[in-house]
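Quick one, tokens below:
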């Protein structure tokens, strides 16, 4: 995938995360945006189908989204957002089977 498209998906994921953290609305939109970004970053692929590697990559991307949103939300909102992003990152295995 082209870098511009990946960057656009990242921006969409960050904006959706900020919106959810501030308003408590748009959770499904945030989950879809985050998963779309992670998929574009090939976080859902690993050598030898190593699910632990996939989860670690997804957690790294989730933390990047959290860092990008950091100055746009309050401390409490950021903590809740980080926890939710980690849940999304860890949920990969459930989608597979």
């Amino acid at each position: 995938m082209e870098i511009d498209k990946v960057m656009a998906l990242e921006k969409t994921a960050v904006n959706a995360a900020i919106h959810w953290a501030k308003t408590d609305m748009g959770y499904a939109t945030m989950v879809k945006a985050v998963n779309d970004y992670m998929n574009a970053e090939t976080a859902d692929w690993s050598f030898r189908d190593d699910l632990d590697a996939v989860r670690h990559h997804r957690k790294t991307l989730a933390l990047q989204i959290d860092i990008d949103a950091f100055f746009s939300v309050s401390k409490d909102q950021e903590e809740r957002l980080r926890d939710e992003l980690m849940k999304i990152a860890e949920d990969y295995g459930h989608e597979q089977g």
